[in-house]
Amino acid sequence: MKNSQIAMLFGLLFLCLLQIPSSNASFSKTNPIYNVNLAPFIQRLSAYYCLQNTSSNCTGNFILSEKGWLNISNSETNAFCGELGCAQHTLEVLKCVRYVHDEYTFENGATIDNLNDTIHTGCSKGFNGTSLYKSSGTTRSVTATLYALVFLALFYV
Question: Phi, psi at residue 13, to the nearest 5°?
C-alpha cells in the first residue's frame, strides 16, 4: 500500500513539474503577440518587435516607427490607402502593438488610438503629413526609452 501511494505522489509531482514553464521559454521576435508579457520592459520589447514587422508594400515614409509620425502627404494618400498600399499593414502592426502593450505611447506622444484615427481619417479625407494626437503638456523622456532599450538589448538578445 505504501509503495503505490509513493508512486502516485511521484507521478503527481512529475505532472506538476511539466506544467511549470521553462525559464528558457522561447521569445518570439517575428510574432510578438505570443510572448508572455508580465513585465513592462517585456511589453515594450514586444511592441518594438511588432514595429519591426515590415511589408514589401511599405517603403520609405510609409513605414511606422517608434517615432509615431505618419509622414504621408495628401498626394500620397491613394498610394498608402489603396488596395496594394500600406494602410492595412500599418493597422495590423498597431493591432499587434495593442495586444502586447495596450498603453503604448510613441515618441511624439501619439497613442495607438491616435494613429488608428489618423489612418482612418487620412484614408477618407486625405493626409496632411502629420499624425493626429492631443498634446498632454508633458514630454516623454527619450533618455529613459534609450536606457530601457539598452537594458533589453543586453539581457534579451
Answer: -60, -45
Residues of the chain with pLDDT under 50: 20-24, 137-140
Residue 11, domain member (yes or no): no
pLDDT of amino acid 147: 67
Check residue 105 and report its DSSP letter. Answer: B
Q: Could you tell me which of 57, 49, 44, 47 has the C-alpha nearest to residue 30? A: 49
Q: What is the pLDDT of residue 21?
A: 47
Half-sphere exposure of 92 (CA within 13 A, CB side): 12
* Helix orientation angle between 87-100 and 40-51, rounded to the nearest 10 degrees: 170
Cell (9 digits) for 157: 538578445
Range of the domain at 132: 53-150
User: What is the pTM assigned to this prediction?
Assistant: 0.68
pLDDT value at position 55?
87
Using alpha carbons, select from 119, 134, 108, 45 the residue that is nearest to residue 81: 119
